[in-house]
Protein 1
Amino acid sequence: MIVLPREKSVREAMLTAAVCRGFFEYKNELIRVQQGLVGEYYVDRQWDDMQLNTPYFLLHDFQTSKHQIDTIFLCPKFLLILEIKNITGIIEIDNTTHQFTRKLKDGSVQGFRNPLNQAQRHQRMLEQYIRTLPIVYVVVLAHPKTIIERIPPNAPIIHSSGLESYVRDLLASHHPCLTNDQLEQLLQQLLQMRVSVKPKLNIDASLMRRGVLCNQCAAQMYYKHGNFICLDCILKDDGTLLQQALSDYYLLVDEWISNEQFRTFLGINSIHAAKRLLKKLELPYVGEKRFRKYRILWKC
């Protein structure tokens, strides 16, 4: 049973907004994040075909203030941490240096954070709070063409195609530790540990590209008679692109915006026109007159 579904990544949305707003130095990081999400969704589908004869809960993208766990599998016998990696090439983990590397077809070698160390860190954290269940972990390689060449002996690293067999072996080798009621209590304990952490990017907001941007030519749209219009494409915004612009502001600057900031960011000259548009948007606000600030609502 999926208790925490995997939702749209706030970091992906933030990086997408940053690139769209002119911070192209984040483009490679955006690609890496998107590739990682593809891998996580691919592994998530593996659970759909499993017919396990035990009650269990799946918690995807489990976050605390200092930890982000790709997936937690919770059952009466154990808690399993999944660290999911979506990388191609030939991978190696040096048992002495703990260096995790991959070799590509052109012979180049790249280094990454060691996923075993990441999973062990998550394990130590959970063991501080959970004493009633064994806590184990596995690194799951999502890409089918990844070649595992050299890893430490007995290191729990598998391809996603072997996930079901791995879970069934764990179920066969462990005995129940919790009743169904105790399992539900532990689930609630985990859910109470969760926190929502908004990531931050080191950007200078004053350098951010402003305005409602045309989704056809990417030009800044002109505000006239209550509408945003692209002078190049003659495209008239139906409100979708304005909402996207406000989402970008929320992600990169702040969730609160004043009338003056609203006008500056969107290129609206009239304070009264901005006031009418803000009223139309029905954003919640605090303060009165020139001290009023509006809260931008954003959903994953």
Note: Residues 2-193 form one domain.
Protein 2
Amino acid sequence: MSKKSSSVFDKFIPLGTIQRRNLQKKQIKELTVEGINAIQAIQSLKPDPEAYELKENDKRTALEINEKKKLEPLIEILIEWINYELSDKRVIVKDLEQDLYDGQILQMLIEKLSGLKLTGDSRLNLGELSQKQNLKQILNFINQTMEINPIMSKWKVEDIYDKDLIAILHLLVAIVKFFDVKISLPENITVKVIIIQKKKTLEKVTVIEKITGINASKDIKKDRDAFDTLFEHAPDKLELVKNSLLTFMRKHLGKLRIEIESLENLDDGVLLILLMGLLEDFYIPDFAYVSKPSNYDEKLTNCKFLFDLIDEVCRQEKNCHPEDIANGDLKSILRILYLLFSNYKDRD
């Protein structure tokens, strides 16, 4: 039977649901970018110890110049997560330091996750003393809920109220871990932090601060699979698998005159999206994804769109997350490619 000719529009997959979902996310992401840009403008200034007015034994922290870029992927993920969790309250966070310092959003977040209510007066207070008292009550509630000794916590009332980004990140990462939030945080993030302390004179020391470690969030509860075994015990066979998947990609992307040399640079999602379109024989319009992503946020948008496409046609467990692909995790990239290979290996 001859194959019935079809136009580009006949081949176009119904993406209404995906596009609507991405449109909703886009509005939040635009606000997220604004917040990141504002933070960068402030943090680009080199910390000056003389600018701090400290009492004896008081201390302040500041990021070393250019260290903020290391935190951008983590900040973007956390902002998107908070906005998702509190979407029913019409709360939109743009900037972690500016929006979380008084504790109001932290209270809404911990109450939503724990299902508990903070007793007492939690109304918005305009005075600094009232705000700090309220923040102390909220942080005590968070520490009690997560069974954390306040003395051991890396987030103090003064730090959060003074908009200390490092303290805020430590708190949010701890909340993600405790409540087993289903997001994938970048692993092994460390930054250089300047600690300024008043001991008769101002003293400055630079330390390495660890924000996340391996498996920083408990969301990654994937079952072990063949790729875990290949990476750990059979590197020679791993190369054979990589070559087979590379050949598979070249075979199909060659139809678009796209040359691919390795599987190492697929974190922006573009080639994987194009591959998906070729395999399913449908047209993906340019406006549906970012053809030339220039930052992590745009890469993540593409990877989420890729996963939406796969869910539409394959409906199989992927054993990884869009964030894993956007972070350039080779094992996750191979998992996605093998899923496509398994379903379309006989496709011309």
Note: The chain is about 50% helix and 5% strand.
Protein 3
Amino acid sequence: MQPAVIADIAHLINESVRLTYAEPHASLKLAEQASRLAPSCPDPLLAATAWQRYGNMLFAFGQIPEGQMAHLKALTIAETEDLRALRGELLQELAGAYYTQGNFDEAIDYWADCLEADADFSTETRIYAYIGLGQVYFAHEQFMAALSQHLNAQALTRDHMTLELRARVLINLAADQIALHRWADAGETLDRAWPLALEDGHKEYQGEILVYRAEVALGLGDTATAWHFVAQAEQLRRVWHWGETSELMLKSRILLAEGRVDAALQAIHHALDRSNETGTGHKTFKAHHLLAQIYRELGDQPAAEHHHRLYQEAYKRIVSTSSYNKLQALEQRLAH
């Protein structure tokens, strides 16, 4: 019985991985089946991997709280069985999920665990943690500090590491460069990231790169090229659920640049709905901020004040002083 269970779980996981982009719904179902067999699996590494796989597919479909529950089950096994490499992976993936929800304090705690000197995690886990800390700085609009953390990640990256990781480092560097209006640098960084994401078959990263290429084009005032990249990104939406809100926010800004205010408002409200549905709170406050600006320019003061108030409430809830102080304290601890 036990060898059969092991073979079944391994097959389900492998098939789920194989079908990630070709048939994402089937991939999710296979991962769920593997997780159901996990409690009867005598191999703790395989059991934890089954829960991890299911969690990652739930994350891909925007079901973040459910994915966290699956990952916490995997983490319990990894900690009980002292599976250090897997524990490091799970910590950084959970941190990413908390970050996506706007729970930065929790995300920082998980990433801090990955960077402790005595943690004995892989270099790859440390890279992911630096990427994550940079993302928290980015959310706080501390773009130079974000760039510094992402350069820490890049300094640890080697050519033998996975295409996915190397692409991820470059994508985050490009995001910082775009926020700092370093359009040429961002374009060069994205040009380096694209072949990695393409060779790896990573549709989410391909979608992100296309959106950032559109951001660069918009920054340079070229709305036609921006629309070209947005159209390419839209073709990936079937498997790139997390990117939909970013894509809609970008479309609204392109529409504004073209003076198409009504269409821009429609896109932003759609982005706000999707952000609320998927729990991506750190995008919610940006949508309210943009809406407040548009309604103010349209002379609709009540609507402008309403969205500005919602923006302030969301900003205070997500971008907290405690998170920033926690980041500063962690940096000081790591420096010693």
Note: The two ends are 52 Å apart (CA to CA).
Protein 4
Amino acid sequence: MRMADISQTQAMTAATQTIHRHYQRLLATRRLYSLLALAGVLVVLVFALLFANDASSGKFIERLPYLFDFIKNFVPDDPFEIVRAMFDLPSPYADGSFKYDYEVGRHYLFGTGLYAPEYFYEMLVTLNIAFASTLIGGLFAFLFCFLAASNLGVARPLRWGIRRLLELMRAFPEIVLAGMMAAVLSLGPIAAIFAVSVHTVGALGKMFFEVVENADMKPDDGLRAVGANWFERVRFAIVPQVMPNFVSYFLLRTEINVRASTIIGAVGGGGIGEVFRQSIGRDHAAKTYAIVILLFLTIVAIDQLSGWLRRRLVGNAAFQFGA
């Protein structure tokens, strides 16, 4: 081997060693930062637990060993009581109390002997709140998103105002809005629909205008070149591109609103959440477990249906990691 080749090999080896040392230093620094971040999280967690303990008059940490005692002691008389409670069937344990009055909750249909079980009916009320809220919120979000997008030539003050309005509408949780509207509209599904709709406008509006801003503007440029006005450009150049993603976000928001409607029901918004609060507050184990099972099955069914529809619209690639 010639001397020049040996010198070049030694130089490359030295350079490689230098790069390796730099890499080791960077790796050590990264590990140090990770450990410091983890330590910071642990410190915050400890202080949070101490604060919770003080706020609970010193009983939080003391009662932690008994965390699951409620579930252990909260059991029905027999497993079939859950089925009887779910379908409003007479109970052999009936003693005239509210605990076993399953038949009282029946909703008879059209004056006949056919009935809808109470919890199925209340679940339908909750789904109605969620679907109505998503439709109302989706409609207004669709109208606002084009005015909030920065690539459609909307006047800056108007765009700024629409974005701030959307931020305000999603700033408050649905349960806070429901509490505010209950003072105006009284308790019930109307206040729940209003609260969920307002939050849906803010959340979907942001998602929608971000989709619009990522749309291909070449069709818009073509329509602008032939003299199309703003509405025509939005209708024929932007909407066809963004509609699949809009529908996907709409379905995703429907799933979220079903859960939100259940929570709002627990504070007087009607539906399955309200009867759940009553049953668990009265220590009615069979009714509570029947509602929990019905909720679980309903949400799983909605999630699966929504996921299937979204895959049909945007394709499986959108659900794959790194796609």
Note: The longest strand covers residues 107-108.
